[in-house]
Write a structure and sequence with these properties.
Keywords: Hydrolase, Membrane, Transmembrane, Transmembrane helix. InterPro entries: AB_hydrolase_Est10, AB_hydrolase_fold. One of its GO terms (molecular function) is carboxylic ester hydrolase activity. The chain crosses the membrane at residues 370-394, 415-443, 455-478, 521-544. This is Alpha/beta hydrolase family. With 546 residues, the chain is α/β, with parallel strands linked by helices. It folds into two domains: 2-29 and 362-540, no CATH class; 65-226 and 238-346, 3-Layer(aba) Sandwich (Rossmann fold). 45% of the residues lie in helices and 12% in strands. It has helices at residues 2-27, 113-121, 143-158, 176-186, 203-217, 222-225, 227-232, 249-252, 274-285, 319-332, 367-396, 403-406, 413-444, 450-462, 464-492, 518-540, and strands at 65-75, 78-87, 94-100, 125-129, 163-173, 193-196, 259-264, 291-296, 344-346. A nine-stranded mixed β-sheet has the order 1-2-4-3-5-6-7-8-9, with helices on both faces. Helix 1 packs across helix 16 (518-540) and helix 13 packs antiparallel against helix 14. The longest helix is centred in the last third of the chain and has 32 residues, at 413-444.
Amino acid sequence: MHKVKRLAIFLLTFTVLLAIVAGLGSATTPSWEVSKNTDHVKVATADTTIASQLGSTSLEGSYRTKETKTTVRLAPHVSVNAIIREPVNAPANHPACLFIHGAGTGLSSQVYGDLASALASAGITTLVPDKRMDTYTTLHRDYQGMAEDYTKSLAILRTWPGVDPSKTGLYAESEGTWVSSVMTAQDPSIAFSILTSAPIYPGRRQMPMAITSYLNQIHAPQGVQAIIPKLLGMNFSPLGLEYADFNALPYWNQLKVPALLNYGTEDTSMPIEQGTLELLKRARSSNNTNVTVRYYNTNHQMRVGSQLPQANLPLDDHYTHNLEAWIGAVCQGTKTSDWATPLIAGTQPQQHFSVPAHPQPGLFKSLGTLIALLAASLIFNLLAVIGAVMIALCRLFNRSQSSMKRYRFGTHLPLLLASQGLASFLMLVACSAYIALVMVHALTLSPLSDNQVQLWVIVKALSLLPLVLLAALIEHVLNAAVMQRAGRAHLEGKHASATSGMGNYGFTSQTPIIARGWGHWIVFALAIGGSLACLCCLSFWGMYSF
C-alpha cells in the first residue's frame, strides 16, 4: 500500500510539472507567426530585355577598359582602397556607377569585378571601394554612417575625368540597399539607384521569413520552425545587433530617382514579391513611378548554377546587358512613359512566406534571458553532478564513521541529484545539437532525411527524462520527510512496535531529509536550480508542446 501511495504521489507530481512546463512553453510563444504569402506580382513577359523609346545605348564590349587603383579617405586616419574601371576613349560626360557592398564582402579586389568591368566596357565608369571594416562587425553596423562613407567615394567618382556628375548613380546588393536608400533620400542629385536582392524591410521582419523559407525547404520539423518567432521577436541588445531594427521604409518613401529592382527567383531569403510591391507603393508616395523590376532565374547574387552563393558562378546571361541598357536609357532622360519594354518582367516569382508585420516577443523578451538560462542550466547541472559524485564517493570511503557524520545527505539523494543533473545537461546538449544539425542543413539547403526528421520526436520524448527525475526527487524528499517524522515519533513514544518497519526504508531521526552542512546544501541548490533552468530552456525550445 505504501508503494502504491508513493507511485500515486509521483504521478501527480509529474503531471503537475508537465502542465507547468507546457504552460511555460505556450507563454514563451508569441502571438504572431510567419504565414503564407498572398501578395503576388504578375510579370508582363518572361523577356527581361530593357529598351527605351528614346534610342539605343552603348553595348557591352564597345570600349576597352582601364583599371586604376586609388584610395578614399573616410576619416582623418581611415582610408580604404578602391578600384576604378573606365572606358577608354569614351565620349566626355558619360555615366558612372558606384558599387555598394552587401553583407559578406569587404575587399574591392574580391567583389563586383565582372559586373564593374562589363559596365565599363559599355561606356560607364565604375568605382568599387573596400568596405570600411573598423566600424562594421557581426554585432554592430551603422547604415547611416556607412552612407556617409560611401558618399565620399561618390564624390571621387563624380569628379573623375570624363564622368558627368549628373549621370552618376548607385548599384547596391542585399544589405547594401539599406545604405543606398539613405543616400538617395539625402542626395536627390543621385541620377539613379539599382537595387539587387533588396530586403526592403527591417532585418527583424525579413529574417523570420527567410529562415522559415529555408527550414520549409529542407523539411525541418514544425516544432523547429515554431522556434523562429520566439527567437526573432526578442530584444537583441545584450549582444548588440541593434541594426536588426534598422528601418529603411521611411527612406524608401523618399526614393525620387529612377530605380531598377532586381531579384533572383531562386532566392528564398528575400521578399521577392512582397518587397517589390512595398517599394512600388512607397516610391509612388513620392510621385515616382519610374521603377523598373526584373526577375531572373538566379540565386541571391544573380548567378546561375547553384541556389546558394558560391565562388566563380556566372551571372545570368542578360543581367549585365540589362543593367547597361537601363543606365544608358535613364541617363538619356527616359521617363516612365518612354520605356519600350514592360516595367515588370522576367521569370514569374513565387514568394511562399510573407514578412511579418510586427514581430513581438513572448514571455522571454530578451535574448539575454535565454542565454542566462542556458548558461545557468549547463553550469549548475555540471557542478551538481560533480558535487553529488564527490559526496557519494566520500560516503563510500567513510563507512566506519558514526552515522551522524556519515549521513550529510538524505538517503539516495546523491544518486538522484547526479542523475537529475546529468540528464538535464545531456538533454540540453542533445537539443542544441539537433538544432545545430538543422541549421547546417538550412545553410546548405540540404533536405533532412526521414530519420533525421523523426529524430526530433525522439529528442522530445527523451526530454521527459529530466521531468521524470525531478518528480522522483520531489516525491523522494516528501516521503523522507514523512518517514523521518514517523521515526521521531517512534523514538519519543512508548511503543517501539508502532514503527518497527522503519529500518526497511533506511530513515532514522539522524538522517537529514535533504542535506546537512552548507556544502551539501550548495550541491542540492545547484541541482534544483540547474534542473529548473533546464526545464525552462526545454520549454522554450518546444520540447513540451504537443
